[in-house]
Amino acid sequence: MERYNFNEIEKKWQKYWEDNKLFKTDDDETKKKYYLLEMFPYPSGKLHMGHVRNYSIGDVATRYLKMNGYNVLHPMGWDSFGLPAENAAIKHGIHPNIWTWDNIKEMRDQLKELGLSYDWEREVATCHPDYYKWMQWIFIQFFNKGLAYKKKNPVNWCPSCQTVLANEQVVDGICERCKSPVGKKDLEQWYLKITDYADRLLTDIDKLEGWPNKVKLMQKNWIGKSVGGEVDFEIEGFDKNLTVFTTRPDTLFGVTYMVLAPEHPYVEELTLNTEYENKVKDFMNKLQYLNDIDRSATNLEKEGLFIGKYAINPLNGKKVPIYIANYVLMDYGTGAVMAVPAHDQRDFDFAIKYGIEVIPVIDPGNPEIDINNLKEAFVAEGTMINSDQFNGMNNKEAIIKIVEFLEEKKIGKKSINFRLRDWLISRQRYWGTPIPMIYCEDCGWVPEKEENLPVMLPTDVVFSGKGESPLTTSKTFQDTVCPKCGKKAKRETDTMDTFLDSSWYFLRYTDAKNSEEIFDKDKAKYWMPVDQYIGGVEHAILHLLYARFFTKFLYDIGFAPTDEPFKNLLTQGMVLKDGKKMSKSVGNVVSPEEIINKYGADTARLFILFASPPEKELEWSDAGVEGSFRFINRVHRLVFELTDIITNVQNNYILESTDDKKLAYVMNTTIKKVSEDVGGRFNFNTAISSIMEFVNELYRYKELEDINLGLLKDSVEKLILILSPFTPHICEEMWQHIGHKESVYKVSWPDYDEGALVKDTVEIVIQINGKVKERIEIANGLNKDEFTDIAMNNDKVKALIKDKKIVKIIAVPNKLLNLVIK
Ligand code: ANZ
Ligand code: ZN
């Protein structure tokens, strides 16, 4: 008998699929469509197990849907701009373009080795001019709608490397490359006005019924809508009011100090030529190493500085000191806070540290909390105290009343704040999409003419790792003419954040080769939205939010057919080894190549799909891989052994013996279970275990004396078909071996016979005095009397009872007969 030669089999079928263009998708609008998408990878050069998991999940679903008659779009591409290519250029002198395309080639081959059913004719690479041309086109649409603008913003600047660093290149305030302290430098940078979409991005989350709740919650928190009010405080001896944003206007009477973000423009004015001027500068210098995320952390050690001035509480005229502090951000609300230590933990920590008064204004009504001697801020609901005319109200009610009062007196108003910031998209990097903007002394910023796109990345660039933007080193790139007035002008030398590239690739796949338009609207209309998106939970916030933002924008300007891109979302769990995330830094990586070489792609796929449900973490197990390999061998052996006796048999048959009925029952319930698990719930692991039971039953059945060859043939065929989405190569091979000419991929998914789902007989348990004594087969579905009657008249039961006296009979039809005897 033939050995299972996975190497030969897998190569053979991969070639067959490719030669026969089996996975090519047509835009056939008469067919029901399904768009199944996995997140495209960054081409690092090596596939890791996380990729294998992500793509195997998608592949099973695709193959299943295809066999169920859907026209499935299942594309793949490359998120191929980004820093690693540029670092390789600086380190090893390889041009990013060469490095990237070499990696793409390698990874594409690895994907093909896994037998994944992609339509490679739709492949996109974001670093290809055919793609980034349309990226630039989108940017220009944003600019034309007033949604792209330039603003000064501090960047991380390494004075020794003379270059801008990304946040991840700054470790504890130190440059990752040269280990010198990093400073800040103000640079003009491009932003996208995503905040204009904040409200819609938030409310439309409720439309996303097919998304995991945890992802929706993360999106909501990131957008972070806060409803509250703005309140104006006068500053003693200063002619401008200080406006604060608060979510708790009810605590206004409890304000005991004010805090400005150190970057607040008033700070300089208020301390100019005072003893505080230099102290503020020192404070700012220390602070520059903390980013906004560190500064908002609850466990941040609060630090601040009194700046010598006082503000007046507009409700009670109380004079309170003004501080600057590390925990107040310039970029949120108004950059200023009314501090209420009694009811805000950050303010409480700060007040205790600096000896500032704590005035409670909400009474918890709980004798266990001593309101005049708080150990921590009281943040729950309660009754208003120390608040003049508002005393006695519930504090929620007081929020409304106080805002009304402020509005009447024109010292404040209702206000909504989003945590979401505009999106800083400028990068001082080479390997990204050039921002297609031109600066003219007379006309200001002007977009490149659309007919001149793409603005190509120049090739004469020096990769020194120094300077602001590498594009400034090109001799040819910068000098151009103004598209508006024709005068000499300069091109923007920043490139785009790579998150832009991945915000619309799913739209491009619907018409990937279009050179006239970003995509044909009819094609996009047919395919969009993506029916199922699959990817890592690490992209649950930014990537998905940006993709939703782009889709809404392209919808608004009349291009995208839907205003949400992804109907259903599956976030797959991580791959672990020895309880830790598989990663280079931990040193516990098992490479997909190693597994494919040793066992073949089908085994790798089967193990990964069987070991755990897709959303859960997956613990790597060598024994599990072995087990999957053994199972495939077992199926292979079974089919090859039976081939001769089933080849010329007719498929129609009548179920005769109890064993026939049992096999038919197992076959049909397995088909049903696999259909439900794969089609609806992505429970691949349970689908595979039921296939394993089916195989066991086939092994049992084939050894019987009296076997029904028609049934056997039908079972073997259906086994191959339902296993084929998981382990496609071996299933093609077996399918061919038993005499079929066409690919399994083109065969319809098997139906199951409802009638065969009812068992003729069931096994019941007989207990005597609570102990299991016997298991017997009896007819299925009897009512209580019939059941008791038949069970009691069974010879074995009679023998057990003999002449003892029956005290009690407990009968659970189809399951259990318990006799109490004396
Ligand atoms: C007074 C107050 C009393 C506050 C109280 C809270 C509780 P969220 O919910 O996240 O929007 N705040 C306002 N601007 C800030 C800034 N730029 N940096 C740091 N903190 C800032 O938070 C809103 C609350 O955070 C605001 O309400 C303000 O403190 C603070 F018992 O005002 B609150
Ligand atoms: Zn001009």
> Main sheet, how many strands, which sense, barrel?
7 strands, mixed
How large, in whole angstroms, is the Cα Rg?
Answer: 35 Å
Bound ions, cofactors and other small molecules, one mention each: ligand ANZ, zinc ion
Task: Tell me the distance between the termini.
Answer: 60 Å
Structural class: alpha+beta
- Global outline: globular
Extract low-pLDDT stretches.
none
Strand content is 15-25%
Describe the structure.
With 822 residues, this protein is of the alpha+beta class. It is 36% helix and 20% strand. It is built from 25 helices and 34 strands. Strands 10, 11, 12, 13, 14, 15 and 18 form a seven-stranded mixed β-sheet that branches. Strands 2-1-26-27 form a four-stranded parallel β-sheet, with helices on one face. It has a four-stranded antiparallel β-sheet with strand order 6-5-9-19. Strand 5 (148-158) and strand 6 form a beta hairpin. Helix 19 packs across helix 21 (684-702). The protein is globular, with a radius of gyration of 35 Å. The two termini are 60 Å apart. The mean pLDDT is 93. Bound molecules: ligand ANZ and zinc ion. The site of ligand ANZ has 18 residues, from strand 11 and strand 15.
